[in-house]
Amino acid sequence: MDKQSSLLEEMNSFQVNKTVNSDSIALLVFGACENHGDHMPFGSDFIFPLELAKRISIKIRNLIILPPIPYGVSLHHKKFFMTINLEPNTLVNLIENIFSSLIDNGIKKILIINGHDGNIAPIEIASRNTKDKFPKVTIACLESWWTLVGELSSNLFEVWNGMGHGGEAETSAMLYVRPDLVTIKRAPADTIPNLPEHVRIYWNIDELTKTGATGASKKATTKKGKVIIQILEDLLVSFIENMEKTEWKYGIHLKSH
Ligand SMILES: [Zn+2]
Questions:
Q1: Between 20 and 30 A from 237 (CA), which of 10, 114, 149, 195?
Q2: What's 12-65 look like in SS3?
Q3: Cα of 213 to ligand 1 centre, how many Å?
Q4: Are the beta carbons of 217 and 160 closer than 8 angstroms?
Q5: Which residues share a beta bridge with 215?
Q6: Which backbone phi and psi does 87 adopt, to 5 degrees?
């Protein structure tokens, strides 16, 4: 057998039986299907995280990537044409169903790469419910890569730490992984939302932008995208390697090695 895919959807049952066991790490990608401006694809929120997941799977042998969930909670994007929205409870149930299926099959290590802000709360609720039922399972999540990269690499971005919906970071990331899906000449003018600093407002995105995009999309470059994916890849690979050393134990269950 030649080099085998880490994508569950591409594996046959022979490969699954041979590869998947209680040591496997299930990697889940949650995205959305919504407007990201005139320059970025509707599937941005899972296309980039899935590419990141594939890169990680080259380095981590016992990783199984599940089919990405292409829809998310997009209530705050509904005003824009062709937004496909899951009600929050639908997504919570969906995530819990996936978790239960994994756990029924002996999986104890679950890692999520989330690509969309509306999914953060449902992922947390589903994870807490699952953790309550199955305390031995470890569930980990990279909740918000698009804000994290700016925090980790403050010199990388020119405007607003790279943030924004289809903004400098997201557009750069997509330019690097799927340049064919970015029309940079249609990127909107900079839109930095007028929002208070320390207290969160639960906005609808049409209150912030007329195009569906925010941030400084025009400042996006392939070079920045390459740095972004490298930062995230390194971070997740080192996270997984450290967790593997302790069999995904942490806190007071961590025995010194
Ligand atoms: Zn989104």
A1: 10
A2: CHHHHHHHCCCCCEEEEEECCECCCCCCCCCCHHHHHHHHHHHHHHHHCCCEEE
A3: 10
A4: no
A5: 191
A6: -60, 145
Task: Assess whether pLDDT exceeds 80 at residue 257.
Answer: no
Q: What is the pLDDT of residues 188-215, one digit of tens each?
A: 999 999 999 999 999 999 999 999 999 9
User: From ligand 1's centre to the CA of 117, what distance in Å?
Assistant: 6
Q: pLDDT for 60-78, tens place per residue?
A: 999 999 999 999 999 999 9
* Cα 65 from Cα 27, distance rounded (Å): 5
Quick one: pLDDT at residue 254?
Answer: 82
Domain range annotation of the chain: 23-242
Task: Report d(CA 112, CA 135) in Å as an integer.
Answer: 18
Calculate how far, in angstroms, residue 158's C-alpha sits from the geometric centre of ligand 1: 21
> Chain centroid to CA 105: how far?
24
**Residue 139 Cα to ligand 1 middle (Å):** 22
What are the tokens at 184? 């940079």
pLDDT above 80 for 3: no
Query: What pairs with residue 59 in β-bridges?
Result: none
- Span 23-242 CATH architecture: 3-Layer(aba) Sandwich (3.40)
C-alpha 167 – ligand 1 centre gap (Å):
11
**What whole-number distance in Å separates Cα of residue 168 and Cα of residue 190?**
9
What's the gap between Cα 95 and its chain centre?
14
Cα–Cα distance measured from residue 60 to residue 75, given in angstroms and rounded to the nearest whole number: 35
Mapping DSSP to helix (H, G, I), strand (E, B) and coil, where does residue 88 land?
A: helix
**What is the SS3 assignment for 234?**
helix
Ligand 1 center to 64 CA (angstroms): 24
